[in-house]
């Protein structure tokens, strides 16, 4: 159980980076770059170097941490840095960090000189269970998430729980939301197992199971024409809330916190429009609201949130499209919902939030 | 003889855009965008609209003409325009113009929301015989050509000689250089035929033959790992001269004029390093120097030119790599050449230029 085969590459688990050392030592690459942010270069690079052992001949490209820097200006900076380093098409880029680093590093690599090889070493729980599989790379434009990007596969992915030790609890919780989603959309037993577990002590087995689920879905539909859209459960509303929070809140929601809100709202829509039972709606709502901090979606943000949803990549012909549950463990794609229903679901989150607080 | 099948799409010749009308009428697309520059929207759009007939429901995205605008700032502008138009993943972008439009339009389309469909209608001879095949898209960064881009195939390509009627002679000559190259690298008979022809009256058959040659090469090696590199003949030095001229000359060289110079220099290198006969070197030099205007490569530009060559995408391990002829119609890849030899070849161009002028 130390490898999952994905399209054209492998995802390695808990190998202490041994296969990476082999790849580097093969001499296939003219130069090695490690792309990291200020946080990961401080917290994760030492472990990376320790695991690599003798081999230390790489150049470090460092960027500022945070989603707000996953933009085209930083991209241009990295392209120019590679050019300054005289990086040719046979160089390798190792992305060491969270989703911002793997998304942006993957995009930079897949477009520099029309594409150089890259390897992802996700160092956050979120990046390990979500960004690590599926070949999505991207950057934000005008605060619209992943508005520009490509589908490009890394040469390999390495998942090492050692990197998670440096992670604040809030970041663990952020990744945990995607794991809950994996249970909700395809695996009721996994969801039940997660409910019994402690997000602060995630097992390697649970991470493996999440990667396995995501890998199965994206392998079936690499370019998101159909079934892959189930992975967007919680994300249509969640992304909008995340974008709004990033612009307006002093201490913005993490991705997972926003997706957790989105999953409650979209469970409500699932119950209204896709036959999710009332009991399961309450089960999901309760579990998420007891696990994640409370948030209030302001009434006067509803119009902005709808505007963000309208620019969602999943939409077709101007219709906001949802992936909705029909039961815990089963998800349907391409569900259309009215704007009024969306507003209702936001109010549901606000109200049930208060109810639980009053319990 | 009205279609060439390329990887996953067709190149249509002289069809009066009939298959395009069918594609649009199929209703597969949520919205149609036509991407053009100030020149092509004035000179080519009327013919485009005339050929399309009834169907006129598209939005025009216009950019400034010229290679100097094939940059990331204009890209960002187009991405944002698509966003403003609420373009979803099911929209279609039709690139109507020369290589700048098809290169940049293709890159924008292949990265907007991780990829929308696009169709190329090259309206210059250069774009028809060169940019139309092979799936290369790209933009320049810091005046370094196509430093960022992707390999992405269009849905279809339409080649209509009607568009060439608006083209200045200098632009015809620019495209003609690539046709000469096609003859030089793989087809001696085609080269001889071109020598007897008049570049101002290019036949549809010749354009077809050039596209056929290029298509055969890129189909065999889509990602430029091997044989495709023969298409770079004349381009290692040619690109450097083009970049230098773009920065320093009041009236910069066209792409083809620069490639013509590159082909003479690289014929010299071919004769020195790859067994091209002296007679063939003289044949190529004479033909190009009688067809293209004379240019002087200034001695004090040699250092800059070498620096540009060092950042060429084809290089490996810091070595400047050439594709060199062994005879007219046969080309070898991955030839390395010393800096002194490169300088000699530049001087050869300058000297033989003068000799012919003195004839």
UniProtKB/TrEMBL annotation, chains A, B:
Describe the location of the 3-dehydroquinate synthase N-terminal domain by residue ranges. 63-172
3-dehydroquinate synthase C-terminal domain span = 175-315
The EC designation for this entry is: 4.2.3.4
| Taxonomic superkingdom | Bacteria
Name a Pfam family for this protein.
Answer: DHQ_synthase
Alphabetic keyword roster: Cobalt, Lyase, Metal-binding, NAD, Nucleotide-binding, Zinc
Record-linked InterPro entries:
Dehydroquinate_synthase (IPR050071), DHQ_synth_AroB (IPR016037), DHQ_synth_fam (IPR030963), DHQS/DOIS_N (IPR030960), DHQS_C (IPR056179)
The processes (GO biological process) annotated in the record are:
aromatic amino acid family biosynthetic process; chorismate biosynthetic process
Q: Under which name does UniProt file this protein? A: 3-dehydroquinate synthase
State the GO CC annotations. Answer: cytoplasm
Whether Acetylation counts among this entry's keywords is no
Co-factor requirement? Zn(2+); Co(2+); NAD(+)
GO MF annotation list: 3-dehydroquinate synthase activity; metal ion binding; nucleotide binding
Q: Give the organism, scientific name.
A: Pedobacter metabolipauper
Sum up the protein's function in the record's words: Catalyzes the conversion of 3-deoxy-D-arabino-heptulosonate 7-phosphate (DAHP) to dehydroquinate (DHQ).
